Amino acid sequence: MKxxxxxxxSQKLDGGAMFGNAPRALWAKWAPPDEHNRIDLACRALLASxxxxxxxxxxxxxxxxxxxxxxxxxxxxxxxxxxxxxxxQAGFGHEDIDVVVLSHLHFDHAGGLLAPWAEGRAPxxxxxxATFVVGAQHWQRARNPHSRDRAxxxxxxxxxxxxxxxxxxxxxxxxQALGDAVRFSFSDGHTPGLMLAEIVGPVAAADxxxxxxxxxxxxxxxxxxxxxxxxxxxYDRNAELLIDEKxxxxxxxxxxxxxxxxxxxxxxxxxxxxxxxxxxxxxTHEVAxxxxxxxxx
Length: 297
Fold this sequence. Notes:
alpha+beta; 6-stranded mixed β-sheet; 26% strand; globular
């Protein structure tokens, strides 16, 4: 099995919102803002093939579904569907994807499921041969969002996914589509039922646990700077819960040598977890891009 980091459309969002409780003097050193206080964000997907005999895409980024007015409001920089171009550079088309795993359905993680915006055309679902894997709790949130996060969802998307006949709702730690090759855990600090996918590592311990895998961190840890446990986003629904979840997640990743895959970090796709003598988490062995990289490399 090999891994590719797949670049999607990039985005600019307010740095204060992205770093929540951190002062500007601190986060501006990590992510310098523009004149509008916005920082650059990637919307990166992870491609794995063959995984359980299938070609699997973890998330799809923000895509190009926004009309021009909303594209400008939400800081989407490119007009074309960058994810499709990046898949083509890796040797794949969206028709080649067998499974799309969605941590959650906020537009910056699921908008790439849709065809680019066109005047007078209703939203159209891409990936005609894929099974769409979504967590059960978050699926209910997407269908009935709270007023606080309603704007983060694409209203038409749940209906399109249901109408495809290829939607799998996951309640446990595995899915029918991927079997034991991918293990799921869940987080509620950012949004209810955020589904964290881990490609199971090649090394099995005596207790049956897998080591050396890759975890798609989604919005639990958007990038390297959010590895610092106290750092949360203004978009998180429950910052204290997220901090507790993040600490447990990082402790487990460190113990089992699980690499972290970041979707929003502009300069780092993959990294290994570290912990210093004061107990602070960090990253090392940072990799900017993955090009047909073996899982065990």
